[in-house]
Amino acid sequence: MLGLELTGVSRSFGGREVLHSVDLTVARGEIVGFIGGNGAGKTTTMRLILGLLTASGGQITWNEKPITVEARRAIGYMPEERGLYPEMTVDDQLVHFALLEGSSLSEARDVARELIGVLGLAGRERSRVQDLSLGNQQRVQLGVALVGNPALLVLDEPFSGLDPLAVETMAGLLREQARRGVGVLFSSHQLELVERICDRVCVLDHGEVVATGRVDDLQDDSVSRWRLTFSRDVDEILAAELSLIPGVVPAPVADEPRSIMITVDGHGDDIPDQVLGAALRRGGLRSIEQIQRSLAEILTERLGALSATAPDAIGDTRQLAHIGGKP
């Protein structure tokens, strides 16, 4: 596979294994969401990719060959903590890091000029970083990760603390990098965002990969859900009749007294005939809508099941369930 691949990667600290045989791939032009609760091992994995730590076991390859120091020069890294000089101006900051990548002064200035345009920072060239909004600081931070024209971006919580407009801007920038053939791996607690922009996800829980694959595949659930809406409030008689149908569980919809949610065992694109018949007999049926469970719901359920056998994982599960939260 052309790109990054971790196979059976483990890492121990003081005799305690914190990563357990992690498998992870990021292909060129692909956006991969790396998610999990606090202490799950995301940052440790990223440091192994960058060569800041050495794996205790397993293999990390780049373009199907063991990753080298030279290959790691093709990785652009954005840490969660600010890695910028707060009193330096935007253009001086980008020029400085381009020089560190080996550019000449004239090349570094060209790189800075191009990135300022790409990042939407025109007019802010002479602003000090500390005077920028948090969203613009994140853009500069991403610019620093891009100065070496990387083939892979590794981003630790790039959306942390951003307002909705800044989130959309950052997401657009990452999509553009992927369209250019850059692989993108980013960690986030914002599962709605991960679901929306990622091609694939990898979920860690206490150092183990508990779910991985394309977002659509992970959402291919073992149940189907349907929302039925009527012209008048749903009564207990309909709920009772639906509950008698095997494999069907009815539930009220919060703040929508004219709707009822139906969960049916087994994944399917057609509402069961018995459910439809009961709804039609009741009368006043206005609409039927199939509802796909969110990635957040599905993954929280899966990690919750793990917590039943591993009580110390509960804290991580709660953090993962808090969409948009930040530890």
* Sheet/helix structural class: alpha/beta
Helix-strand string: EEEHEEHEHHHEHEHEEHEHEEHEHH
Q: Average pLDDT across residues? A: 86
- CATH superfamily placement of the largest domain: P-loop containing nucleotide triphosphate hydrolases
Cα-to-Cα separation, first versus last residue: 34 Å
What does this structure look like?
With 327 residues, the chain is of the alpha/beta class. The chain folds into 2 domains: 179 residues, 3-Layer(aba) Sandwich (Rossmann fold); 69 residues, Lrp/AsnC effector binding domain/regulation of amino acid metabolism (RAM) domain (Alpha-Beta Plaits), CATH 3.30.70.920. The chain contains 12 helices and 14 strands. A 6-stranded mixed sheet has the order 6-7-8-3-9-10, with helices on both faces. A 4-stranded antiparallel sheet has the order 2-1-4-5, with helices on one face. A 4-stranded antiparallel sheet has the order 12-13-11-14. Helix 3 crosses helix 4 and helix 11 packs antiparallel against helix 12. The longest helix has 16 residues. It is elongated. The C terminus is likely disordered.
